[in-house]
UniProtKB/TrEMBL annotation:
InterPro entries xref list: KH_dom-like_a/b, RbfA, RbfA_dom_sf, Ribosome-bd_factorA_CS
HAMAP family per the UniProt record, alphabetical: RbfA
Gene Ontology molecular function terms on file: ribosomal small subunit binding
Keywords recorded for this protein, A-Z: Cytoplasm, Ribosome biogenesis
GO terms for cellular component: cytosol
Subcellular location(s) of the protein: Cytoplasm
The species this protein was found in: Spiribacter aquaticus
A Pfam match: RBFA
Protein name: Ribosome-binding factor A
Protein family per UniProt: Belongs to the RbfA family.
A biological process term (GO) from this entry: maturation of SSU-rRNA
Amino acid sequence: MPRDFSRARRVGDQIQRELAGLIRDEVRDPRVGSVTVSEVQVSRDFSYADVFVTGLGMDADESRDMVRVLTGAGAFLRHQLAQRLTLRKVPTLRFQYDPTFERGARLNRLIDDVQPDDGSGSRDSD
């Protein structure tokens, strides 16, 4: 019987929770503000994990700069994860900018900018 929730996905969820706390508590670089770890995708062989992050209140350039800082702190964060998780092998962390929140905010602005229909369309009320 196939599993709906694979081990790689469970490990990814656990890494996501731990990384969110580690970044908040341990990374002291001022370019890393409020970070949301939106998703972690672990490879099938657990050799690497793609970590998707977004900086809250940051524009795209600031968020990409934050990704560079987190990539530089990747070895430190991986070491901290190894101490917190009971895994034989902790995957290499590959940080990537996740534009999902930015797209969502842009769509909300577009929806808010649309003028409501005043009801004087082509339909006639009888």
